[in-house]
Write a structure and sequence with these properties.
about 625 residues; alpha+beta; 18 helices
Length: about 625
């Protein structure tokens, strides 16, 4: 339960001209109608904002919405981020058409906290009893079926004090989001003030915003803009920080008001996915198969054109015209722009899989039908094969905690911040081992399958005839790929994978290397030239394998070739060089080693790299003390 002084945001709802704005004005002393046209027409057109303190001292902000059907988009922008509603029905007119429209919106958004307000009771003789009974009947079966009701008159003031007390009670029972949650503030206005700069206002639904915070402005422009919070206000008071749920005016640095529109969102950088398609489940309203393909999706203050592909009556894929910061369990409103019909839906998947194969839609319908709201870790990991824990959390999916403290569903492994599905893990092992085996059979001298080649193999789609195996994610870490190879019974070295026991040289190559080693054992610095190596049948690939097995040492020849010595040659050279007067020249080293400049220079550079010798000048070296 929230503390008694936790600020709150409450939206109005109800038919046009049922006294919503008059009620807000009477409760707060603030005129919610901001536009000159609204005063001229006597009609609320856009969102209005006001605030007051309740008897407990709790600060409450009101978002007043228009009631006319022509402004249903503005109404949804006001209700969208609000967790509590004052549902207003006029005593003299009773339930009307837009009352139903607004109740449909409340259902779609899942708003269950609020009050039923019977307004204009000064115009009837029964104190609003008839309108109340009618409204109770209409609210039956809705989230607001059991809310308290208050009869009021904005003209006489009757019932206003009781309304404030009841609202205090309702708000005391609502649950505030955790203050350390990631920030999401849906923008409803943006303007510029001289001497202040860009200001955006909206309802902060999640997290805490502080002065000097770095945030992302996610909007219609596509790529998020990085902005800085210069200052904060709520209810015309300055604050160093604001925590949701609360109305906020945020002075921003890093953007202009011309680049901000209603429906944009201020979010914690990197903490929210930006999704252009959703898989959803119907929560209210008409069946999804009864809605047209082209819709408008309302969420927060955003209204985005979209296309819908129903999988069945209850589930659908929704493709948005622009990406939004949405996660699993978010509620969206699907509105038919040609009629007044709206359906509520809850997001089941904010990163749904592509549907390519025949029958994919039907299979997706079955998968979504069994998916719990809030997502299922096991299902998500099975679909992806492997996924970072942070990525699931960013999508709004959290690991369940078992009684033994192990937060892993059956069939899921956790390694280095990633979750792996056991079936995908086993399938990748089989694929990787098969690929390495085939490579060694085709080319025994191969240094092994590189990480890049392994990734390409594991990223291929599974064969239609075999069991489905998820493709290896492109960002799968090298450390986990190496562990996967180890699990597959492979050896890994220098980023390449081989079968254990396959490092032996082919017999003819092994014999040639033995001849070479015999020669070098008697004259250790008499490295063979290219023609001699070719005569032995030792090319670059054969020598590379021999070096990998520790049979030879290869050093780069300044002429572009290779100097081949025994692995013991550096230590033998150090014995001779240590006996020279220090420092010594390359010519002196050549003489001491009884070899050529072709061998001496690469060998001395090798010793420099190992830290056994060091240059004193361009022409002189000395043995380092060891």
């Amino acid at each position: 339960m929230t503390g008694p002084l936790t600020p709150a945001v409450v939206a109005t709802a109800g038919h046009v001209d049922h006294g919503k704005s008059s009620l807000v004005r009477a409760l707060t002393g603030i005129e919610p109608d901001r536009l000159a046209e609204e005063h001229r027409r006597g009609l609320t057109i856009d969102l209005g904002f006001a605030w007051t303190a309740l008897p407990s001292g709790r600060s409450v902000a009101f978002v007043d919405v228009p009631g006319h059907q022509r402004f249903i988009g503005n109404m949804l922008a006001g209700l969208g981020p609000a967790p509590v509603v004052l549902f207003v029905v006029a005593a003299d007119e009773g339930w009307q058409a837009q009352s139903t429209d607004h109740l449909d919106a409340v259902r779609a958004l899942g708003i269950a906290d609020g009050l039923l307000v019977i307004s204009k009771v000064d115009r009837v003789d029964d104190g609003g009893a008839a309108a109340l009974a009618q409204a109770r009947g209409e609210l039956a079966g809705s989230p607001l079926a059991d809310v308290e009701a208050v009869a009021v008159s904005a003209v006489t003031g009757a019932g206003l004090d009781e309304l404030l007390r009841e609202l205090d009670t309702v708000l005391a029972g609502t649950k505030a989001p955790p203050p350390d949650a990631r920030v999401r503030l849906w923008v409803d206005r943006a303007f510029s003030l001289r001497g202040t700069g860009t200001v955006v206002t909206g309802t902060l639904t999640d997290g805490t915003v502080r002065t000097d915070d770095q945030l992302w402005l996610s909007g219609a422009g596509g790529r998020p803009q990085r902005v800085t919070v210069r200052s904060l206000q709520s209810g015309q008071q300055r604050f160093a920080e604001l925590t949701g749920v609360r109305r906020a005016a945020v002075n921003l640095r890093g953007t202009s008001a011309d680049h901000v529109t209603r429906g944009d969102a201020l979010v914690t950088p990197g903490a929210w996915p930006s999704t252009g398609q959703l898989d959803v489940r119907r929560s209210s309203g008409p069946q999804l198969t009864d809605l047209p393909e082209q819709l408008v999706v309302h969420v927060g203050t955003a209204a985005v054109p979209a296309r819908m592909r129903p999988f069945d009556d209850q589930h659908a894929r929704v493709r948005l015209d622009r990406s939004l910061p949405l996660v699993v369990s978010d509620r969206v409103v699907l509105r038919d722009p040609g009629t007044r019909r709206i359906a509520g839906a809850v997001v089941l998947d904010a990163d749904p899989p592509a549907l390519h194969r025949r029958g994919a839609g039907q299979r997706r319908s079955i998968a979504l039908s069994g998916m719990p709201i809030g997502g299922d870790v096991g299902t998500e990991v099975a679909r992806r094969g492997a996924v970072p824990v942070a990525a699931l959390r960013r999508l709004g999916i959290h690991l369940p905690q078992r009684p033994d403290g192990v937060p892993l569903p059956d069939g899921v492994l956790q390694r280095n911040g990633w979750l792996l599905h056991v079936d995908a893990h086993a399938g990748w092992q089989r694929r990787l081992r098969t690929a390495v085996t085939g490579l060694i059979e085709r080319d025994p001298l191969s240094p092994g399958l590189s990480r890049a080649a392994a990734r390409r193999v594991l990223a291929e789609p599974s064969a239609p005839s075999g069991p489905p195996i998820a493709a290896l994610p492109a960002d799968f870490p090298d450390v986990l790929l190496d562990q996967l190879a180890t699990d597959a019974g492979l050896s890994s070295s220098d980023g390449r994978f081989r079968l254990p026991g396959t490092d032996a040289l082919p017999p003819e190559v092994d014999a040639a290397v033995a001849v070479l080693r015999q020669r070098l054992s008697t004259t250790p610095f008499a490295a063979p030239d290219a023609d001699e190596l070719a005569g032995l049948g030792l090319g670059s690939r054969e020598l590379a394998v021999a070096e990998r097995l520790g049979r030879v040492l290869r050093l780069p020849d300044p002429s572009g070739g290779v100097v081949v010595l025994l692995p013991t040659a550096p230590a033998l050279a150090m014995r001779e060089l240590a006996g020279l007067p220090q420092p010594f020249t390359a010519a002196q080293a050549r003489t001491a080693l009884h070899t050529s400049r072709r061998v001496t220079i690469p060998l001395l550079e090798h010793l420099d790299q190992r830290g056994w010798t060091r240059r004193v000048t361009d022409n002189l070296r000395e043995v380092r003390a060891r």
